[in-house]
Amino acid sequence: MADPWQNEYDFAVQVARAAGAVIRKAGEEEIKVQTKSSTVDLVTKTDERVEKIIIGSLKEGFGDGTHCFIGEESVSKGEPVILTDKPTWIIDPVDGTTNFVHGFPFVAVSIAFAVNKELEFGVVYSCLEDKMYKARKGKGAFCDDEQIQVSDVKDIHKSIIISEHGTDRSVEKVTKIFSTMQKILCIPVHGLRGSGTAATNMCLVASGAVEAFFEIGIHLWDIAAGVVIVREAGGLVLDVDGGPFDLMSRRMMSANNNVIAQRIIKEIEIFPVERDDAPVQKK
Ligand SMILES: O=P([O-])([O-])O[C@@H]1[C@H](O)[C@H](O)[C@@H](O)[C@H](O)[C@H]1O
Ligand SMILES: [Mg+2]
Asked: How far is the CA of 98 from the centre of ligand 1 (A)?
């Protein structure tokens, strides 16, 4: 049977590449910064503009009303996060906005596609490095058309682990995050890293540069595309307590294998976060 979502997949790659070119260009100009949920949760005109470009192009291609869209900036303007069985695009126009603002060279466009609430494909364009990561369910993961695979390291002492601290600066949460990092570092592991973009971090797991990446507090648009890429590269994605991964939970552990995942999970100090599909009240 012909691949039902091949057109959508090819289109997503084209749109991500075009969006990345807009981001690169915008990075050469003056960047005006605003804040969202906190003073360190940054947003720029480029985030909004690129999301409009991406959703606009997707609607031109597939705008017969059967497709739904969940985009970071639309949600921050008050749209609810509702994932139905309909074909749904999950978009982070600029993952790594803080990096973008500071000229730190990792910024990604992340586009995922889900049907019947299952992720079908993911595209992550690391636009400053000009690397196109992509994966289609059951068909492998690729970086610039070269197939990628997770690392085969099983010894935690030979691993590099990524975690991030997100944008919540409450002392209780930051304390737990750093306590977890300290425990992992002292296992000991070879190193701790973080690129500043969850989407890129997942591609680093998928391509074998690191063994695991976990974070509490990410949103579905940060990781949806990366989830497919990690799985198709032979890795696994779990909840931070070792249970099944839940796209809406804002908790995610991705690893090259279960030995590494379980060893890290033992050290994670979990703190509560509001789910992405929590009913919209306020804003
Ligand atoms: O805001 P944004 O730059 O799109 O996304 C952020 C990045 O992915 C960062 O690595 C992660 O630590 C944050 O949790 C995300 O919110
Ligand atoms: Mg993001």
From this structure: 8
Over residues 69-88, mean pLDDT:
95
> What are the start-end ranges of the H helices in the chain?
6-26, 45-62, 72-76, 97-102, 171-185, 198-206, 220-232, 258-265
pLDDT at 117: 97
In this predicted model, what pLDDT tens digit does every residue of 180-212 receive, in sequence order? 999 999 999 999 999 999 999 999 999 999 999
Ligand nearest to the CA of 99: 1
Helix (H, G, I), strand (E, B) or coil at 79: coil
pLDDT of residue 281: 63
CA 196 to ligand 1: nearest atom = 10
Would strands 68-71 and 42-44 be described as parallel, antiparallel, or unpaired?
Answer: unpaired
Q: Whose CA is nearest to atom 9 of ligand 1?
A: 197
Specify the domain boundaries for CATH 3.30.540.10 within the chain: 6-148
Q: Look over the chain and give the mean of its residue pLDDT values, rounded to a whole number.
A: 95
CA Rg value for the chain? 18
Structure tokens at 113: 């596609």
User: Where does CATH 3.40.190.80 sit in the chain?
Assistant: 156-265
Ion ligand 2 contact residues with beta carbon within 5 A: 92, 95, 222
Question: Does the domain at residues 6-148 carry the CATH identifier 3.90.228.20?
Answer: no
Residue 283 predicted with pLDDT over 70: no
pLDDT band at 14 (very low <50, low <70, confident <90, very high): very high
Per CATH, is 156-265 categorized as 3.40.190.80?
A: yes
- Asked whether residue 158 carries a pLDDT value surpassing 90, the answer given is yes
Helices (H), 27-117: 45-62, 72-76, 97-102
Which residue ranges have their beta carbon within 6 Å of ligand 1?
72, 92, 95-97, 164, 166-167, 196-198, 215, 217-218, 222
